[in-house]
Design a protein that fits this description.
alpha/beta, Rossmann fold, 2 domains, nine-stranded mixed sheet, six-stranded parallel sheet, 22 helices, 18 strands, 40% helix, elongated
Length: 478
């Protein structure tokens, strides 16, 4: 049995801003089911304090010294579904309205990293593997090797770094290296952590971890290229031998149309025809769309950013709504995109609707009530929405990039294989052509459509297969 400590900036069931939280909420739980000792540590944010503090147990308080940082950390803990969770409390750093995006993010997560390492000594817990996620935890492996060079307990731990999105790298001023991380400036001057005339937390994580992973096999290859490497491709190429891609899964207990309490009617692969029809009607009524069983309803649940390909949709909105379809969009992001989508209800009354923000209940209803799900991403390290939509029998229309390419099998009209529709290039015309093909299959090849829905719902989108690959990865380090 291995002992694995997951170090992350967020995680379900406590706090979420993106897909990272879903991974932290699912993978440790799956490892525990398989017999491993899996634990998680994250900051104690204000939202966690407000919603969960009364259920947390205070574990210890200790001083944190790192460069010019001299402060105190308090650790709280709880156990959920066999997973032990630790939370690092510091009111000044973490009890704020948001999670990230502050001028002192470099300092905040330098403190978090040092507090994590010091906690291990305080509670006498030294896992076999420390599994870090994204730039927020990127300095941990280097700090462990540097600050605790003479302590075998720290040096015996192995380190894994998982990149969830290479676009976010934790790039900060070089003076943080000494002032907040407590390390010699030699790491900057010799180029080890230097990046764009500052330092990169993620670069340190890539270089000093024993293994580096990302969240799909295709993305692991894409980030070695200039197109997707975000200026980090050379660094990644130096670790190519230790770089692998393991596609994410989803929590199939949470995302289950057969038991989902947020749906108008539950269904499974044997009853999806009536189940999806009932959920479509409920969604149409709730969103003010024309209630019609036979119209193709396309959904989108997304951050509205350039990465997600929403500009392609804006470019083709009039052409899309010239088809016999309905459209429902849920999300928030870039202001100009939000403003564009806010107009669609007036331009296309009872045929298109946009919900600005995020609504968990509505998200479930979109996954269940729509017929197709649009994800025209420029790049997508893994993507979870296409996995959820397949689980609910809503066929994804995706661009062949990253995890979208790895998880969605394109429809084959001859063999009747497939779990959705895919297009290759980041191009509005190519996207629109595939949407039109999807529309054609929906209206003209009804039996094929039902076969695709059944294929999608039978696809293994759980953590089971991914978990086996993580076991193999962990074992390979010993």
């Amino acid at each position: 049995m291995s002992s694995v400590l997951f170090v992350a900036s967020e995680g379900l069931p406590f706090i979420k801003s993106g897909g990272l939280a879903d991974v932290i909420g699912s993978l440790p739980k799956e490892l525990v089911r398989k017999g491993d000792d899996a634990r998680v540590i994250m900051p104690l944010y204000l939202k966690i304090v407000n919603q969960h503090k009364e259920n947390l147990e205070k574990l210890c308080t200790f001083d944190v010294h790192s460069g010019n940082l001299h402060t105190v950390a308090t650790i709280y803990t709880t156990v959920r579904e066999g997973v032990t969770y630790y939370f690092v409390e510091h009111q000044g750093y973490f009890e704020r309205g948001g999670l990230y995006g502050y001028d002192d993010d470099g300092e905040r997560f330098a403190f978090f990293t040092k507090a994590v390492l010091e906690m291990l000594n305080q509670i006498d817990y030294f896992p076999d593997i420390v599994h870090c996620h994204d730039w927020h935890t990127g300095m941990l492996a280097l700090m462990c090797k540097d600050h605790y060079a003479n302590d075998e307990r720290y040096q015996n731990m192995k380190h894994v770094m998982t990149i969830h999105n290479l676009a976010f790298q934790g790039n900060f001023s070089a003076d943080l290296l000494y002032n907040c991380l407590g390390m010699d400036m030699k790491y900057y001057f010799d180029g080890t952590v230097r990046f764009h005339n500052g330092i990169s937390y993620l670069k340190a994580g890539i270089l000093f971890s024993d293994k580096v992973t990302t969240v799909s096999d295709t993305y692991a290859h894409e980030i070695l290229t200039k197109e997707f490497g975000e200026n980090m491709e050379g660094v990644l190429e130096s670790r190519a031998w230790d770089l692998s891609g393991i596609v994410n899964g989803i929590d199939c207990d949470l995302w289950n149309p057969k038991t989902d309490s947020l749906l108008a009617k539950n269904y499974d692969v044997k009853s999806f025809v009536g189940g999806k029809k009932a959920n479509k009607r409920a969604l149409q009524e709730a969103m003010g769309l024309r209630v019609a069983d036979d119209v193709l309803l396309i959904g989108m649940v997304s951050r509205l950013t350039w990465q997600k390909g929403v500009y392609l949709l804006v470019e083709k909105m009039y052409e899309l709504m010239g088809q016999d379809v309905q459209l429902v969009i849920l999300g928030t992001g870039e202001t100009n995109i939000e403003n564009e989508f806010k107009q669609i209800e007036y331009r296309f009354p009872r045929r298109a609707v946009y919900y600005c923000g995020y609504n968990e209940e509505l998200a479930h209803q979109i996954y269940a009530g729509c017929d197709a799900f649009l994800m025209p991403s420029l790049f997508e390290p893994c993507g979870l929405s296409q996995l959820i939509s397949m689980r609910y029998g809503t066929l994804p229309i995706v661009r062949e990039t990253g995890g979208l390419k790895d998880t969605v099998i394109p429809y084959n009209q001859y063999t009747k294989e497939g779990t959705g529709f895919t297009f290759a290039n980041f191009n509005a015309d190519e996207m629109m052509n595939m949407i039109k093909y999807c529309i054609y299959v929906y209206y003209m090849q009804k039996e094929d459509w039902k076969t695709l829905v059944a294929n999608a719902m039978k696809a293994d989108v759980s953590w089971e297969a991914s978990c086996r690959k993580y076991f193999e990865l962990y074992d390979s380090m010993f």
